[in-house]
């Protein structure tokens, strides 16, 4: 199936680069915090920059620290963070430890430290990358799976949103749904349909299931969390519906679908957990009528429609007005996740 009206989405972000935001080393309120502990991830053959220094852990095992610190700002999160990258001597793991400090006078976020780790999930040729972000100080023990839009898990907008969700107390896993081949704004629109056909539905289902099972092993088996939550944006929103329809409420306790694309409305009757749908009424990729039809067939679900908003407004706001609605949508999502997951655990 193709994206109907997909090119309007490309036009919206064609001038955007998926790279990180410009650095600003002169921010006066940034404070240097103590270096976080290193978290060892699953096996990985990626990430092999030249090391700056080595820290011995004893025996033949070393952690190499690299000159990859960078400072990024997010106007939406009101946060400034420094990211520290590490890898082992044999480049089989990589850890990102992210320290976040809330701006003076900003009370929106509560935590000051989020730890992160890059992972390789699956085995052999079926393996794929992912990253896990965990709130350190105010962790509520709940696991969330985030399915990205077409620009992939490494896109700055997706990472910013994932960081912010983690900072709200969650353990957030974001898989690379496209195996290193996300859509980019530099590509010709004529290539889009071919790119879509390369995203095998069978592979996507397998990768999402692998990600969910990994989180079960990490959190549910340890009796930290009873059910997982799942959040999807754009392409990931459509895959969220398919995932919940096939899950029957066994792994996931709820879902939040942001302007999902390529949604099959017939799957609604197979979903047994509440879903929050968020979209704008000026989004040809996610018709409001489809969402209301889904709402009727999913018990305890809810549709939030933002007037005048188009595709991607909640995690890619383009104006002060969109910023305001994006903030409201994030607050609505937080409340929904708390009521459907945290309050029940």
From TrEMBL:
<feature type="domain" description="Dienelactone hydrolase">
    <location>
        <begin position="128"/>
        <end position="339"/>
    </location>
</feature>
<dbReference type="GO" id="GO:0016787">
    <property type="term" value="F:hydrolase activity"/>
</dbReference>
<dbReference type="InterPro" id="IPR002925">
    <property type="entry name" value="Dienelactn_hydro"/>
</dbReference>
<dbReference type="GO" id="GO:0009507">
    <property type="term" value="C:chloroplast"/>
</dbReference>
<keyword id="KW-0963">Cytoplasm</keyword>
<keyword id="KW-0378">Hydrolase</keyword>
<dbReference type="GO" id="GO:0005829">
    <property type="term" value="C:cytosol"/>
</dbReference>
<dbReference type="InterPro" id="IPR042946">
    <property type="entry name" value="CMBL"/>
</dbReference>
<dbReference type="InterPro" id="IPR029058">
    <property type="entry name" value="AB_hydrolase_fold"/>
</dbReference>
<comment type="similarity">
    <text>Belongs to the dienelactone hydrolase family.</text>
</comment>
<dbReference type="Pfam" id="PF01738">
    <property type="entry name" value="DLH"/>
</dbReference>
<protein>
    <recommendedName>
        <fullName>Carboxymethylenebutenolidase homolog</fullName>
    </recommendedName>
</protein>
